[in-house]
Amino acid sequence: MTKKIQQAIHKIDEEAEKLNDTNARIIVSHIIDTYLNTDENAQKVLDDKKTLKACLESIKSKAKKQASNGVAMIADDTVYGWAKEYYGFAVDCKENKIIDLLDFI
Asked: The whole model's pTM is what?
């Protein structure tokens, strides 16, 4: 792990702690596990113009647009996609996927 990736993880973790929001913590865990494996993506988190709070506000705004009678059911993958879009993470970034060993039997 590079120094830049460590700095990005530290920044986004601190932002999540300050927000003290379970949803923020879930999204941060996904970002760290999935996207913070390249310096390019780490730099996007380190960009002073990008904050976790603004990311969550963007996600909430998109969810509200899909709401009906004040209620929205949004799939996790969609929410993670919105976070990816907000930060501008590389499309070709290798995502960590859980492998089911039963698929190989």
From this structure: 0.82
Determine contact, residues 88/55, Cβ cutoff 8 Å: no
Helix (H, G, I), strand (E, B) or coil at 88: coil
**Distance, CA of 84 to CA of 102 (rounded, Å):** 30
**Could you read off the pLDDT of 25-43 as tens digits, one per residue?**
999 999 999 999 999 999 9
Rounded CA separation 63/20 (Å)? 20
The crossing angle, in degrees rounded to 10, of helices 3-19 and 52-66 is 60
Give per-residue pLDDT as tens, 40-75: 999 999 999 999 999 999 999 999 999 998 888 999
